């Protein structure tokens, strides 16, 4: 595995600070990641402070016991200056109290020396740098939004999303119809808004209608408008979305659900942008660009006889397919980080960061509901958590049965091999992390794990994690 670069677009190497008074540990980490990262080494707190003041580090690996400093306190000092600093704490004297303190401080991971598995160490560093990259991407997007850049709509730097964003930028300025296809929850509405923001019609209206959520008569009235007295209850004339979208963009979501009658009517409107309000004989004109979306392959609907072929070719002048989240796993961490920040702000909480185990489980899920399902997963975790790091244990309760089962399976899959290979090591590490997550409270640890408190206490005592 190679260390993840902090900025893949500019190919900048991530900057890593290693603080340890042990020469062997500093040299080991430098040799391990030195080819893919810019590593700075410090043997004590004073040297670390000097380096930290000069360099914007992507990651800090900190020894817990330094000659004149405490590692956790030094990381707290650094995080006071950079709240989103990603830190890893290293110790040769594992202590559950230190683990609890590290978790409360939001340390990304807590590693015990000597390092027996260098591949695992490199993987942890890579995942930590991936989290730093996500933080920076989200901060960059927010800065652009604050500066008034309305084109920032879709989060993603994966190759699949880069291709899609390239297509969107290319077609947005062209005054032609666009068809957005993709599974539910892939971000088609956000893509439509991005097309509007980048188009020559950006200062004009952007209107959207979900064709699948309205009966035929309601959808017809919403699109075409009506005259006073056109039907019972029509006490006054009302302009439809064709008129209201004049000069701008009209977004028809779930176009495949439109009835055959309205498909025919829409085709006539698109031929010359002429239409007639319900209850009127006077034709009207409207200049709008149409953007459509569907979660079902529209060409397959045409072949099945459920969608007009002539309308399909009219609206699919340019077709953009939004990739499912399982094909853009590199975007899961930035998305999860964005949703974590969003719901912390919404609920007035300080939950996070996501632990390495949580990130690994998130990336292991297939996310049948795509980005929307991931969003709901993070929202639920923040809503139910009182504060502090979010581990896999915080995401399992509640939620849709599908994601609950899948997430539990993904979590088990990441630990099953380690359990079979080294049952004792796994159990000890699991209970230590569990107790740290529970803030040192055995009763809370028992609740999170589902293990009866007395049984859990006996097993923790066996490993020396708790004492009389």
Protein model, in words:
This protein has 3 domains: 131 residues, Response regulator (Rossmann fold, 3-Layer(aba) Sandwich); 167 residues, Rossmann fold (3-Layer(aba) Sandwich), CATH 3.40.50.300; 136 residues, Helicase, Ruva Protein, domain 3 (Orthogonal Bundle), CATH 1.10.8.60. It starts with 14 loop residues before the first strand and ends in a 6-residue tail after the last helix. With 468 residues, the protein is an alpha/beta fold. 39% of the residues are buried. Helices cover 50% and strands 14% of the residues. The strands form 5 sheets. It has a 5-stranded parallel beta sheet with strand order 2-1-3-4-5, with helices on both faces. Strands 7-10-13-6-14 form a 5-stranded parallel beta sheet.
Regions with pLDDT < 50 over 5+ consecutive residues? 1-10, 413-422
- Overall average pLDDT: 84
Q: What is the CATH class of the largest domain?
A: Alpha Beta
Named at the architecture level, the CATH assignment of the largest domain is 3-Layer(aba) Sandwich
Number of helices: 20
CATH superfamily of the largest domain: P-loop containing nucleotide triphosphate hydrolases
Helicity range: 40-55%
Please identify the structural class as seen in this structure.
Answer: alpha/beta
Q: What does the main sheet amount to? A: 5 strands, parallel
Please state how the strands of the largest beta sheet are arranged side by side: 2-1-3-4-5
Shape assignment: elongated
